[in-house]
Amino acid sequence: MEATNCRRVYGVDFSGAKDAGKKIWIASGVIENTLRIEECHRADALPGSGKSRDQCLVALRDFIAKEDACAFGLDFPFGLPQALVKQKERWEDFVLSFPGDYSSPEEFRRLCREASGGRELKRITDQKSKTPFSPYNLRLYRQTYYGIRDVLHPLVRDQLACVLPMQHALPDRPWIMEICPASTLKLRWKDTCSPYKGRTDEHRAARASILERLEATGALSIPAQAVRLKILEDRGGDSLDSVIAALATSRALRDPALLAVQISNAYALEGYVYV
User: Fold this and answer.
1) CA–CA dist 92, 159 (Å, integer)
2) What DSSP line would sit under 143-192, residue for residue?
3) CATH code at 209?
4) Relative orientation angle of helices 238-254 and 201-216, to the nearest 10 degrees
5) Confidence class for position 260, pLDDT limits 50, 70, 90
6) How many CA atoms lie within 13 A of 128 on its CB side?
7) pLDDT tens digit string along 3-45?
8) Using CA atoms in the order 245, 119, 267, 17, what is the torsion angle rounded to 10 degrees?
9) CA-CA distance, 184 to 70, in Å (whole number)?
10) How many domains, in total, are found in the chain?
11) 3-state class percentages of the chain: helix first, strand second, coil last, to nearest 5
């Protein structure tokens, strides 16, 4: 599957919360001259999904596995800093061993902190893409844990998807990329970084401003007013983050240098954030 044939793009604003079905948002669109967003909805709307984390994440990974000629951008860390990885040869070994190495998110965070001497280490890609937190930071560790254990692990184990750039992009499987909406805004559109997560009129105006500025660049379009309204009315900003995730994914597909990023270094083991 050439990048130009990967027309369907999904951006997933992920959550490891107990009610993840209400927290996770999924934006989808097609790449034409621009990325045209067609839908944006919560994960509890997926077939077989629900509000609970367990039910929602099974539905999400089943949804990913059934898609083809598409790419998904998910916003949780796909790996750990190299110093904390036991399986030094292949990223796949790390993912396949993950559920056995860490029995709970709390144990995951504890063991990472013990191995790092209490420091919150970042990956090379975190440093370069300016992600806000270490993968096992207090605000992020559940997201990292459930994303790797309940989404990536079964997809990699059963060879149902290709996780880029650590795995080859095969034409008959969906592609999965790690993204970070905060980093995309910070590095690509610095003038759109006003606080937009909140209930006030100012927050809503900021969400509207971000959409308008992204559309003004020609990189994004949202033709349906019902979809636009849904994004603007989501006070948590998660729906907007899913749109930015889809935008970052489409940008990677359009950029041969990004899509072919070299993995003969730390990226091959730690993961890579597409911004």
Assistant:
1) 11
2) HHHHIIIIIIHHHHHTT-SEETTTS---TTS-EEEEE-HHHHHHHH-GGG
3) 3.30.420
4) 20
5) low
6) 12
7) 545 579 999 999 999 999 999 999 999 998 899 999 999 999 9
8) -30
9) 20
10) 1
11) 50, 15, 40
d(CA 243, CA 12): 8
What is the per-residue pLDDT for 194?
76
Owner of token pair 């060879």:
159
pLDDT of 191 > 70? The answer is: no
Domain span including residue 19 = 3-270
pTM summary value = 0.94
**68 within domain boundaries:** yes
What does DSSP assign to residue 129? H
Ramachandran quadrant class, 163 (left: phi over 0; alpha: psi -120 to 50; beta: rest): beta
By the 8 A CB rule, do 243 and 231 touch?
Answer: yes
Q: What are phi and psi of 48, to 5 degrees?
A: 75, 5
- The structure tokens 């750990």 sit at 80
Tell me, yes or no, whether 275 lies in a domain.
no
